[in-house]
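Notes to self after the Tuesday call (sharing in case useful).
The group wants a holo model before anyone commits to mutagenesis around the pocket. I volunteered. Ligand is magnesium ion. Logging inputs and output together so the record is complete.
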Amino acid sequence: MRIGNGYDVHALAEGLPMRLCGVSVDSPAGFVAHSDGDVAIHALCDALLGAAALGDIGQHFPDSDPRFKGIDSRLLLSEVARMLSAEGYTTVNVDITIALQAPKLRPYIDSMRESLAGILGIGTARVSVKATTTERLGFVGRGEGCEVWATVLIDRDGQV
Ligand code: MG
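Result:
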């Protein structure tokens, strides 16, 4: 078994779409990004790649590459899952913490868990998504951006 962690930040701007964990969130502001800005999926991709020591998301999907402009981040996660699968790994569990001042994400949490579980091909019970504000402190608290941490455990039968 191997553990991995991932971290990502995206800035918020008025009038842009907000997608988190592959789910559209109703919000007056969304993420500034080369891709669709799904900061939660980006953190999760880095956690998975980190657990398998397969580099990072910027290395596999550079934001200088026009192929990835506006790309649905679910496709990036799907590709990362394929890479781990090719190495013989399965995902044991995923735990994600999203720091966002607004809007409240509670109504979206179950859809987010189902979305990620579907892409990873694992049961929803293995996927945790949590959300917190930062009590109006820092750049997250001022509504300037969103911060996400992801932790994963992966397993490869009987191998180190
Ligand atoms: Mg990112």
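Two things stood out.
The two ends are 7 Å apart (CA to CA).
The longest strand covers residues 2-14.
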